[in-house]
Recover the amino acids of this structure.
C-alpha cells in the first residue's frame, strides 16, 4: 500500500484495525499520522485516545493486551507502536510459536472495535543490506495485511513537493533556485519542508529567494555555492566567481569537487556545440537518448555557458580544468591559488 492509498482510506473513513508502516521516508509518514489522528480521534478524545508504545521497552504481547482491553476513558483509541523492528528475534528463525507472532495472529482474527494499532519501522530501507532485514520484518508481522511502504521521494516528486510547499508558504523562489535547493538537500522531503519554512520566515515573502539565501541558511548548501560558482563562470562574472570561491574556501569545501562540477558543465556545453543543439529541450532529449538525466534548470545552466563561450574557448576551458585538477593532485602549497588562476583564465 502506498501513502496515497492510506490517505484515501483516511479520507473515506475506512481505516483498518492493524497497520505496519515500513521504509525510511519521514515526511509522508508524519502527514499520514497527523491525518489519521485528526480523522479518527475527535479533539476531545486525543489526550486519552492517542497512546504511544516503543518495542524497545515493551513487548508485542503487551501492546496486544492493551489493544484488547476496553478503555474506561475513551470510546476510541489509536495505538502508535514505534521501533517495530525491536520485536524481531536476533539471528533466530521466525515461526508461529513466537509469543508476539501468535498474539498478532490471534488479534488480527478478532480485533477490538474502534481501536487502531500501527506498528512503525523506519530504520530499514527496501534495498541494499536492509533488504533481508525488511523481509524478516514482513515475516514477523505477516498477520497484518495492511503494509504501508514509505519510499524516499524521487527527484521529480521532491521538486513538485518543494514547489507546492513554496506556494503554500507564499515564498517567491525562482525555479532554478528551487531546483538547486532540492539538489543540495538530496531530494529529502523533510529537510525541504524545514528549509522552505526557514526561507519563508527569512524573506517574509517580500522578495525572491536567491542562491545566496540558500547558501546562508541551508545546511550542506556548499553544493549550492558550487552551482552558483558554475553559473558565475558561465556568465564570465569574475568578481562574483571570486566571491563564491572565497565562500567555498572559508567553509572548507573540497575544491576538487568544485572542479568536477565545472568540468561536467563544460563537457555538456561542448556536446551542445558539437551536436548543434539550440534549446534546452533539445539538450534534455539528447541526454535522455544517451541515458543521462538532465534537469531543466541544469540544461539552462549549460546553455548559459554555451552562449558565453565559443567552441574553441570551451575546449580551452576543459584543458585548463584538466591542468587545475592535475595541479591539485600534486598537493600544492595553496589550493586556492590553483583555482583562482583557473577563474581568471575562464573569465578573461
Amino acid at each position: 500500500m502506498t501513502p496515497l492509498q492510506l490517505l484515501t482510506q483516511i479520507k473515506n473513513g475506512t481505516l483498518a484495525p492493524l497497520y505496519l508502516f515500513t521504509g525510511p521516508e519521514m515526511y509522508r509518514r508524519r502527514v499520514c499520522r497527523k491525518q489519521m489522528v485528526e480523522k479518527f480521534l475527535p479533539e476531545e478524545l486525543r489526550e486519552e485516545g492517542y497512546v504511544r508504545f516503543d518495542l524497545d521497552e515493551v513487548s508485542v504481547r503487551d501492546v496486544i493486551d492493551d489493544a484488547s482491553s476496553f478503555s474506561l476513558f475513551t470510546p476510541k483509541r489509536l495505538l502508535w507502536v514505534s521501533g517495530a523492528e525491536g520485536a524481531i528475534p536476533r539471528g533466530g528463525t521466525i515461526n508461529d510459536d513466537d509469543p508476539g507472532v501468535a498474539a498478532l495472529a490471534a488479534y488480527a482474527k478478532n480485533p477490538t472495535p474502534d481501536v487502531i494499532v500501527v506498528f512503525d519501522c523506519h530504520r530499514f530501507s527496501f534495498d541494499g543490506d536492509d533488504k533481508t532485514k525488511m523481509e524478516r520484518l514482513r515475516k514477523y508481522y505477516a498477520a497484518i495485511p495492511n503494509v504501508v511502504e514509505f519510499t524516499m521521494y524521487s527527484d521529480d516528486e521532491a521538486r513538485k513537493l518543494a514547489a507546492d510547499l513554496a506556494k503554500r508558504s507564499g515564498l517567491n523562489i525562482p525555479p532554478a533556485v528551487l531546483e538547486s535547493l532540492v539538489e543540495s538537500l538530496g531530494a529529502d522531503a523533510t529537510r525541504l519542508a524545514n528549509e522552505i519554512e526557514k526561507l519563508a520566515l527569512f524573506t517574509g515573502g517580500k522578495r525572491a529567494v536567491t542562491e545566496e539565501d540558500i547558501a546562508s541558511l541551508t545546511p550542506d548548501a556548499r553544493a549550492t555555492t558550487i552551482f552558483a560558482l558554475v553559473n558565475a563562470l558561465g556568465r564570465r562574472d569574475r568578481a562574483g566567481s571570486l566571491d563564491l570561491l572565497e565562500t567555498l574556501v572559508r567553509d572548507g569545501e573540497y575544491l576538487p569537487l568544485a572542479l568536477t562540477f565545472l568540468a561536467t558543465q563544460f563537457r555538456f556545453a561542448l556536446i551542445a556545440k558539437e551536436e548543434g543543439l539550440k534549446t534546452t529541450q533539445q539538450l534534455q532529449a539528447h541526454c535522455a537518448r544517451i541515458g543521462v538525466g538532465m534537469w531543466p534548470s541544469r540544461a539552462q545552466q549549460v546553455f548559459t555557458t554555451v552562449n558565453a563561450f565559443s567552441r574553441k574557448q570551451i575546449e580551452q576551458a576543459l584543458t585548463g580544468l584538466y591542468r587545475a585538477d592535475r595541479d591539485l593532485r600534486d598537493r600544492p602549497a595553496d589550493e586556492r591559488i590553483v583555482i583562482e588562476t583557473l577563474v581568471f583564465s575562464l573569465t578573461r
User: Anything to note?
Assistant: The domain at 3-149 is CATH 3.40.50.300 (Rossmann fold). The radius of gyration is 27 Å. The first helix runs from residue 3 to 12.
